């Protein structure tokens, strides 16, 4: 019985990724960001921004906010770079081997719902393309086919996710330039300049508030990926024996602080142009007014590619890791991918789109405090040293009280509740409150009751990973486990 529960924590898809399995290059991760940053919600931020501010200020706020969240993403991503650990596995440290499932599964469900929303958005574009070319008009069939293709792509392994990003990134960039140009020209025909037109201009303190709302909206939207970025970063290439944090995290840093802000800013511009042209942030509607024939097909193709790229990298991969963690070794990565697809579809995002989007933004605000907890646990308390072996032990140091780290949950509730009441600034408030509460409770109370080896004996050689050239090999891993689905090519 003990053997069964002991092995439950050792799903092959969640074992530490060794150095030779880190296959995503700096360019590959940047290409992922080009696709991930293009979402209906991104367009909506641009559309909302130009209702009160000139586009130049909206873009400036977007770049600052995206750069800031990119730094946070890189900071948390070191968990995956250094130790090869995924988000749900490391969460066993601040939440316990059982407690990890509650915040993790909430994140997985949210990611699955976003998969459904983005697939619906992409399916409408697929349907519009087919309707333009052949007269076919059945968006639900388009949804099912589009969803299946994305699920197969993701289930094929992380290398295929990167390959898709590498292929589509240059296509997306070229088409997005054409899209912006088309919408901008259409706005000029209407007598509007997208850079100077503002629906209801504000000044003074109201303008400052509007600027901050755009800034923190960009941060808050990516807060959830900032939480579970280790699931992706564990596959990013990094040098062994590199103690310089910036050099070790170069791949994540360049992608998250250059590719993300630039792409996000440009998509904000497209969303703003769409609103100027059609009073709607959805460029599909605006494009149908501004283009026709093959030009419309090409522009709509970008919508399809971007939703595909976003879903496989930012939604399906993180959700699959979490569902695999919750289900144990019997739920492989590939099976977990399809579970995420099913969850995202059964809620019928096409019927509850407006309500669901608001709910997901609230969930994102509540989950933002988890990022603060991870930061405090990994950097402030453990100093990046982790007793990785015990993360996979049922009776190890992370068992805590019945498998739950009470300090983590108190900090999560405190940060999440306060973040909920300050939605516009949820990420930064949730991060600060949760990190402070967790640090105080864990350091001065909880870890005195449940001592942590890497804190009591802060040895680099024993508890660091790639910095000291170590590939973590988990003791007593079943011999039948040779290669995970997530790593397969």
Automatic annotation (TrEMBL):
Q: Which InterPro entries match?
A: Pur-cyt_permease, Uracil/uridine/allantoin_perm
For this entry, the protein name equals: NCS1 family nucleobase:cation symporter-1
Report keywords, A-Z: Membrane, Transmembrane, Transmembrane helix
- One MF term in the entry's GO annotations: nucleobase transmembrane transporter activity
For this UniProt entry, what's an example GO CC term? plasma membrane
Primary subcellular site in the record, as a coarse category: membrane
Q: Where does the chain cross the membrane?
A: 27-49, 55-81, 93-117, 129-152, 164-183, 203-225, 253-279, 291-310, 331-353, 359-381, 402-422, 428-446
Recorded source organism is Scopulibacillus darangshiensis
By its UniProt entry, which PANTHER family does this protein fall under? NCS1 FAMILY PURINE/PYRIMIDINE TRANSPORTER, PURINE-URACIL PERMEASE NCS1
User: Do you know which CDD domains this protein is assigned to?
Assistant: SLC-NCS1sbd (cd10323)
Question: Where's it found, cell-wise?
Answer: Membrane
> What's this protein's family per the entry?
Belongs to the purine-cytosine permease (2.A.39) family.
This protein's superkingdom? Bacteria
User: What's its membrane topology?
Assistant: Multi-pass membrane protein
């Amino acid at each position: 019985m003990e053997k069964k529960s002991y092995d439950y924590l050792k799903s092959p898809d969640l074992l530490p990724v060794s150095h030779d399995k880190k296959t995503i290059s700096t360019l590959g991760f940047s290409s992922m960001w080009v696709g991930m940053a293009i979402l209906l919600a991104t367009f909506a931020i641009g559309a909302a921004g130009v209702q009160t501010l000139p586009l130049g200020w909206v873009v400036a706020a977007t770049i600052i906010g995206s750069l800031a969240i990119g730094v946070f993403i890189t900071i948390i991503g070191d968990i995956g770079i250094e130790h090869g650990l995924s988000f749900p596995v490391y969460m066993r440290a601040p939440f316990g081997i059982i407690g990890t499932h509650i915040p993790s599964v909430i994140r997985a469900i949210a990611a699955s719902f976003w998969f459904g929303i983005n697939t619906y958005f992409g399916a409408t574009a697929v349907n519009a393309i087919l309707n333009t070319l052949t007269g076919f008009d059945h968006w639900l069939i388009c949804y099912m086919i589009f969803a299946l293709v994305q699920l197969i792509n993701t289930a094929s392994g992380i290398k295929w996710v990167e390959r898709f990003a590498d292929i589509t990134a240059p296509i997306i960039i070229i088409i997005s330039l054409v899209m912006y140009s088309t919408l901008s020209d259409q706005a000029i025909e209407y007598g509007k300049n997208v850079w100077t037109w503002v629906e209801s201009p504000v000044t003074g303190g109201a303008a400052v508030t509007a600027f901050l709302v755009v800034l923190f909206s960009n941060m808050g939207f990516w807060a959830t990926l900032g939480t579970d970025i280790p699931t992706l970063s564990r596959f990013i290439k990094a040098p062994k024996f590199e103690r310089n944090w910036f050099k070790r995290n170069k791949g994540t840093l360049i992608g998250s602080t250059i590719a993300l802000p630039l792409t996000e800013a440009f998509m904000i511009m497209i969303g703003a142009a769409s609103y100027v042209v059609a009073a709607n942030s959805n460029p599909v509607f605006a494009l149908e007014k501004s283009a026709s024939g093959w030009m419309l097909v090409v522009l709509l193709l970008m919508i399809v590619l971007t939703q595909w790229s976003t879903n496989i990298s930012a939604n399906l991969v993180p959700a699959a890791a979490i569902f695999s963690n919750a289900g144990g070794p019997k739920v492989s990565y590939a099976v977990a991918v399809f579970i995420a697809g099913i969850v995202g579809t059964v809620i019928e995002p096409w019927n509850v789109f407006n309500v669901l989007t608001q709910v997901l933004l609230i969930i994102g605000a509540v989950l933002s405090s988890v990022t603060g907890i991870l930061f405090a646990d990994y950097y402030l308390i453990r100093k990046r040293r982790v007793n990785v072996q015990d993360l996979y032990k049922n009776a190890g140091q992370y068992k805590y009280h019945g498998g739950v780290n009470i300090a983590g949950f108190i900090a999560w509730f405190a940060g999440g509740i306060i973040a909920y009441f300050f939605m516009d600034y949820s990420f930064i408030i949730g991060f600060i409150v949760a990190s402070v509460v967790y640090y105080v409770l864990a350091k001065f109370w909880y870890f005195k009751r449940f001592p942590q080896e890497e804190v009591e004996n802060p040895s680099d050689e024993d508890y660091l990973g790639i910095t000291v050239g170590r590939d973590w090999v988990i003791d007593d891993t079943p011999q039948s486990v040779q290669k995970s689905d997530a790593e397969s090519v």
